Amino acid sequence: MMLDASEGYVTADGRQIGGVVMEMKNITLRFGGVVAIKDISFDIREGEIRAIIGPNGAGKSSMLNVISGFYVPQEGEVWYRGAPRPPMKPYEVANQGIARTFQNIALFEGMSVLDNVMTGRLNYMKTGLFAQALWMGRAEREETENRAVVERVIDFLEIQHIRKTPVARLPYGLKKRVELARALAAEPKLLLLDEPMAGMNVEEKEDMSRFILDVNDEFGTTIALIEHDMGVVMDLSDRVVVMDYGKKIGDGTPDEVRNNQEVIDAYLGVAHD
Amino acid sequence: MPEQLVFAMEVVLNGLMAGVLYALVALGFVLIYKASGIFNYAQGVMALFAAMTLVGIMQGQVPFAHLINATFGLHVTHFGWQIPGFIAILLTMAVMVLLAWLVQTFIMRHLIGQEPIILFMATIGLAYFLEGVADLMWGSEIKTLDVGLPQGINLWIDERTFNIFGYGFFIDNLDIVATIIAALLVAALVAFSQYTKQGRAMRAVADDHQAALSVGISLNFIWVLVWSVAGFVALVAGIMWGTKSGVQFSLSLIALKALPVLMLGGFTSIPGAIVGGLIIGVGEKLFEFAIGPLVGGATENWFAYVLALIFLVFRPQGLFGEKIIERV
After folding, report:
1. Which residue from B minimizes the CA distance to A117?
2. Which domains does chain B have, with CATH numbers?
3. Which end of chain A, N or C, is less surrounded by CB atoms within 10 Å?
4. Which residue of B has its CA nearest to A168?
5. Is residue A35 part of a domain?
């Protein structure tokens, strides 16, 4: 499937996908002598669910960290919304409308679920400190507006019953969902999910898959996710990048990738003779 | 009512007020420790620096006068104007914000991710450096600080208690003012951290750096903010202690008094700092009152540390500190 940057395509289930939102151009990332990512290029298009898969140690998380600004690649360019992105701090990337979740859950354990999700709205709060201190009209209106968005997200992800619960007390599966809620509260243009299903049981995985599909469907959010559970990925995603030992070995629709010999070898192992 | 009991009541009241002042200093420690995991040894010197700057500005002193005179052969000492207390306090606060920015930009920013002991050592360095700078800027002589806070015995309380107990309590007006200001300060800090954007961001950073970054919070900005708030608390503490016992080097040693308070209250808890301060304040005054005469007095010098030591043995996280859980 070869497309121009501005061209869209129609998915297997009939959704219209738009032009390129983010493009990775010849990214190479090294840690000392170790090459984590080697000359990888791919794009993410508006409205699609894009997966990055690969065996353990393939460099998937490193790739996500490059996109979200936690790592700066030695070579290559990251293009975002039609322009090359200068090296940025993670918080600046977040301010550009890219939200993310973490493989090992990074929530504010001491705060309630509601407060956690509210932090996702920090970028939308512009009122000055003194206006807030005096709780003046604008600050109050802003708080109410942001609160409304947050409540919608909480409702959407079905976590109303734990709104006031401190996050530290929640079970693993719910924590993952709260993290997703916080990312969604930022109304991101691009949502990055680092192994959203890791460590979950079958039922929780099904729930999470449903939420990811619903988010994409309801808000039209562009989603890039990392997963090593092949089955889940193939059901969820529109296009898949496959990585192995820091290199890209496949890129295409789930069906194309499934039948790619290199991918099969990487996952099943191949005898070298 | 037996005479001893009435005396004890006065002692407790005075202890509570002294405790408030300890709590004020401890609060500065807690703020920085919570947000960045740095135990800021320089907190006491910051209070000294703030108080000296305040006096200097009020009296229209020329900063670095000695240095300027020695270099250029001049004899300037004062600008010749007086600045009213309120404006001087605002100017001093601006200086503390500048200090916070300097500390973050030139020291802490380069030490992100280092071991706590290294960060601690850096703050020790900062303490001595700042002390030197304070001397160089404003001179090392003892100064009196008077921003117009009432001082001396509160006659109203003296009269009322005399009517009731036949013995007038000696309560210093300054202590009463300090208590009120400390209460307001704590209320303001709580409101700030609970209801403002920056407060939320501050709590977020205190909780998880990575997560904070991912929702678009600049760690650098928050740390400058935290050091500024700690500077503000140091300024308030500096004003109270400076008014009480003069602005002099020993002011920086109040930091040492805050240590037992932190061990009691926990390093990460704002209510802990307050309750810890009160317990130490009341404890040391009562102990001196009850046991002091039997052992020849001066128990106030060591009582707080012994109490802290006992706490360390039985409840190392303090009264309100986060529970220490070893995961295996």
Report:
1. B215
2. 3-314 (1.10.3470)
3. C
4. B207
5. yes
Helix, strand or coil for residue B76?
coil
Band of pLDDT at residue A194, cut at 50, 70 and 90: very high
d(CA A88, nearest CA chain B) in Å? 12
In a domain, A134, yes or no: no
Minimum Cα–Cα distance from B207: chain A residue? A108
Number of structural domains chain A divides into: 1
Residue A214 lies in a domain: yes
Instruction: Give the CA dihedral A202, A205, A206, A212, nearest 10 degrees.
Output: -170
pTM above 0.90, yes or no: no
Its domain, for residue A76, covers 9-97+188-268
Taking the C-alpha atoms of residue A186 and residue A259, their distance in angstroms, rounded to an integer, is: 37
pLDDT at A131: 63
* Cβ-defined contact of A91 to B211 (cutoff 8 Å): no
Report yes or no on A135 lying in a domain. no
Lowest mean pLDDT, pick from A98-107, A169-178, B294-303: B294-303
Average pLDDT over residues A215-223: 92
- Interval B229-246: pLDDT, tens: 999 999 999 998 899 888
C-beta atoms of A91 and B208 within 8 A = no
Q: Going by C-beta distance under 8 Å and a sequence separation of 6 or more, which residues neighbour residue A114?
A: A150, A154, A163, A164
Best probe of the B interface among A65, A70, A72, A91, by most B CBs < 10 A, is A91
What is the rounded CA–CA span in Å between residue A186 and residue B213? Answer: 13
The model's pLDDT over A63-93, given as tens digits with 9 standing for 90+, comes to: 999 999 999 999 999 999 989 999 899 999 9
Residues on chain B touching A109 (C-beta within 8 angstroms)? 207-208
Outline where chain A has alpha helix (H): 60-67, 90-95, 113-119, 129-134, 137-156, 172-185, 202-219, 230-236, 254-258, 261-268
Segments of chain B scoring below 70 in pLDDT: 1, 321-328
What tens digit of pLDDT does each residue of A24-53 get?
A: 999 999 998 899 999 999 999 999 999 999
Nearest Cα neighbor of B236 from B189, B194, B199, B285 is B189
Q: Residue A83's domain is classified under what CATH number?
A: 3.40.50.300
d(CA A109, CA A149): 22
**Cβ–Cβ of A122/B200 closer than 8 Å?**
yes
Taking CA–CA distances from B205, the nearest residue in chain A reads A108
The alpha-carbon gap from A110 to the nearest alpha carbon of chain B, in Å, equals: 7
Q: Which residues of A touch B216 (CB under 8 A)?
A: 91-92, 94-95, 122-123, 186
